[in-house]
Amino acid sequence: MHGQEASESMDQARDPSPSKLSKPVTPADPSLASFRTRAVHVGQEVDASTGAVVPPIHFASTFRQPGAGVWGQYDYSRSGNPTRTALQTTLASLDDGVGSLAFSSGMAAIHAVTMLFRSGDHVVAGADLYGGAYRLLHQICDRAGLEVTLVDLTDLEAVRQAVRPSTRMIWGETIGNPRLTIPDWPTIADFARHKGLMTGVDNTFGTPALLRPLNWGVDIVMHSATKYLGGHSDCLGGTLAVSDQDLFDRLYFIQNATGAVLDPMSCFLISRGLKTLDLRIREQSSTALRLAQWLAEHPKVRSVLYPGLPDHPHHARARTLFSHSQPEGETAFGAMITFELNESLQRVASVCQSTRLFHLAVSLGAVESLIEQPATMSHASYDAAARARFGITDGLIRLSVGLESFDDLRDDLQRAFETADSSE
Amino acid sequence: MKMFSVDSVSETDPPAKSQTLSDSPSDRDLASQPPSDHSDRPSLSSEPALGPGHSTRCVHGGEGRQNPAGSITTPIFTASTFTFESTAQLLDFVEGRQQREEYGRYGNPNERVVEAKLAQLEGAEEAVLYSSGMAAIVGLLMSKLSAGDEIVFFDQCYHRSREFCGKHLAKFGVVTRQVPTGDFAAMEAAITPRTKMLVSESPTNPHLSCIDLEQFVAIGKAHEVETLIDATLATPMNVRPIDYGVDYVWHSATKYLGGHNDLLAGVLCGRKELLEPVRSLRGCLGSINSPQNLYLLQRGLKTFALRMARHNENGLAVAKFLDSHPRVERVYYPGLPSHPSHQIAVDQMNGFGGLITFTVKDADWRETSRVVDAAQVARIAPSLGGAESLIEQPLVMSYFHYSPEERARFGIADNMIRFSCGIEDSEDLIADLDRALAAR
User: Fold this and answer.
1) What is the pLDDT of residues A146-188, one digit of tens each?
2) Hey, what CATH class is A34-274 in?
3) A362 contact residues in B (CB cutoff 8 A)
4) Which residues of chain A does B379 touch, with a Cβ-Cβ cutoff of 8 Å?
5) What does the alpha-carbon distance between residue B125 and residue A52 come to, in Å, rounded to a whole number?
6) Which domains are delineated in chain B?
7) CA–CA separation, A305 vs A301, rounded Å?
8) pTM of the entire structure?
9) Active site positions of A, annotated
10) Could you say which residues from 41 to 70 on chain A have a Cβ atom under 8 Å away from some Cβ of chain B?
C-alpha cells in the first residue's frame, strides 16, 4: 500500500489483515457446496448499500479512512481492493485454498513465487514447461542467483536425483505444455514434503473445475487467469492459491511490496468469466476429446497427444487425477490438444495459417478456438537444442479448443489440411 | 464501412514488433485476410468458414475475422464522433458512395457487430439495439403507429408493456385492445381497419403461455396487420419467430442474451426494409447503448448457447421438482404436460427456458413471502435470465399498487412465486426451494 516513505513499522500497522482480504466465504448454506454454484455466488455477494446483484467495480486507487491512524478494511488499491477481494474470494473457494491472490498476469504470479527464494537456492522445474516460465527461470531469476534444473517430472527417479541440498521447490504444470504430460503430482508432493521442499503447480490447462492440486498436498497452485478463468480472450491475469495461511501471508507481502496486482476491470471480467467456467471447460473438453479421436484416425496425423485418449502415455494417471476432482458425471480431460503432422516446418506453418475458424494466435482457453505451432510461436524462446530435447518438434501443432461446434472445427481442420496440400 | 480496415489502423498504430513470446507471428496472416471494409455489416454469409453450429455463431457470428491491430476481440470504440479526412471524403459519405460511421448516436462499430450477431442468431435480416427492452418497444411503436391507429394485445404480458401502450400511447391517440391470451377468435374480432399491429409474448410473463405462432401470423397476414412477438423468455435458442413469418421479434437483451445480470439492453429483429425507419427514429430519439455496454453484451453472447442449454435443463428439473412437491399448488412451466400450452411449446420450441411460476398451496401472501425469504441461493430481485437465480413474488414485486380486482384480471395470485433459474447446479436450486418451501 503506502507511499515509498512508509516505514516498515508503518507497513505492519497499516496492512489490512491479509486473511481479512482473502478469507474464503464458507457457505453457511451447504447447498452452496457444489463447484458451479460456488463459482456463481461465493465472493460475489450482493452489494449491501444498493442490493446490486452484481458487485460494483471499485476503480478507486485509494480509500477514505475513518480517522488519522485508524485504518479501514481498504486503504490503497495495491494493498487491497474490493473488486479484487471478490475475485480472490471466489478463487480461493474454487481452488479449495485458504486464500488466493490476483496478479496482473500469469507471469507476474509465477515471478511472485520465485521471490520466496534467495540467491543460491535451487528449483527443480518440469521440462514440459510454458516458454515464458522457462524464460523467467533461465534469463531473469538466474541474475538473482536462483539455480534451476529442468527434469521430466513424469520420471520420479529423475526428480529425486535432481534434488540438491539447496533445492527449495519443485515447480511444474499439472498438464505439461505443449506435450500435455501428466506428472504424478500427489507422489511428487509427498516426496517433496518428506524432503522439506515446497511444490508449486501451474494448473492453467487443468482449471480448478477439472483439477484441484491443493487437495493433493501441493503447496501453491497458479493459474494464468488470462486463459480459462477469464475465458474470453479479453483480459490478462494470474492467480495463486495456497492452503497454508503462513505461506499466504508471505506471498501477500511479496505482492504488496512488488505491486503486480490485477486491476479492478480485469478482476470484474474474470469474476464474470468464472461464472461460466465449469460450463465452458466441460463443453470444450468434450469437443476436444472428439477432435482428438478424429485426429488420431486421420492419415495425415503422425501422433496425437491428448490425456483423454487411451494411448496417451499417462492416460491411466490422468484418469485417476481428473476423476478425483470430478467425482460426478463424465470425466473431462481439458481442451488442449497437441498433435504432430508428417510434414516439414513450413508445411505445418502453412496448415496453421490456413484455418478459417481457428485463429492463428498464441494463448489459449477462450471461447474462440486457436491454433499455433509451438516451435515457432509459444515455445520459440526455447533454444533449438532444448526444443529437440523436450520433444517440441517442427511438426507439432497445438490446438486450444473453444466453444464452436465439433462439426465446424473438424471441417475447418480438414479444409486446412487440404489447403496446405493444394498450395504445394 | 471502414471500421475493420487493417490498413488504416496499421498506419497509425503499428503492432509492436519486439521479440517476445506473445508476438503476433507475422504479418502474413493479416495480409491474407480478405478486407472486410466493404460490407455494410459483417455477416455469416460473407464468412463461409463459419459453420451452422449454434455455439459457433454465438462465438464468431457478426464479428470481423480480422480486427484492428489483430485484436482477437472487438476493440471498444469509445469515440462519440468519427473523423473525416477531408471534405471530399465527407461528400463520399453524404452522397452515399461510402458507408461508414458518422456520429455515435447513429451507429458505432461495437453496435454493428452485436446487431449482426443477434440478427444471425435470430435468423433475421436486421437487428436494432436499444438501451433497454422498453426503449426497443417504444422505438418500434413510436415509429410504426400514428394517432387513430390500433394495436391488439394478448393480455398476459409484461406490466410495463401494458402500461406504456394503455397509458402513454393512448395520449397520442393510439387505441390498445387487449384480448385473452391465446384466444385467436377474440383477436380476430378485435381487428379493425385501423389495426396496425398484433402483439404477444411467447412464452408470456409470468404465466408462461405459448402462442401458436403459425396461427398468430396467419391472422396478421389475412388482415394485413404486422405481427410482433416478445421472445425474451424463449430466446433464439428455443424459438425463432422469424421462421414462422413474424414481422418483428423483440427481446429484453438484459435477460438471457446478456446473461450475467450486469447490463441493460433491448433489441428488435426483422426485415431490413421494415426496420429502416425504426433505426432512423432511434437516431433521432437517442436510446442507444454505450460501447462498453455493447462489449459486455457481445461477451455474454459468446456463451449464450451454453448458458441457455443449462437454463433449459435447470428449468425443467426445477419445474418437475415443484410439480411433485406437496406444498406446491400449481406450476406454470411450458415443459410440463400440465401446462395448457404444453403441446404448442413442444411443437415449436427447442427448450422451455429457465423461468418458472408456481403457487403455494393454502398460503396467503404473507406465508408465500416467507417461502421467498427462506431461499438462500436464489436472491430476491426482479429480472431473470442471468447466471444467478432470482426469486420474487409478483404481487409484491410488480403488482403491489394494483387493486385486487386488477390483479385477479391479470392472473396474479397472492400465493404466486416466480423463479428464474440461473446456471447453478440443478441439485442446489432444488435443495434451496425444498428448504424454502418448508418455511411457514
Assistant:
1) 999 999 999 999 999 999 999 999 999 999 988 999 999 999 9
2) alpha beta
3) 21-22
4) 46, 53
5) 36
6) 6-94 (no CATH), 107-304 (3.40.640.10), 305-437 (3.90.1150.10)
7) 11
8) 0.84
9) 78, 130, 202, 227
10) 41, 44, 46, 51, 53-54
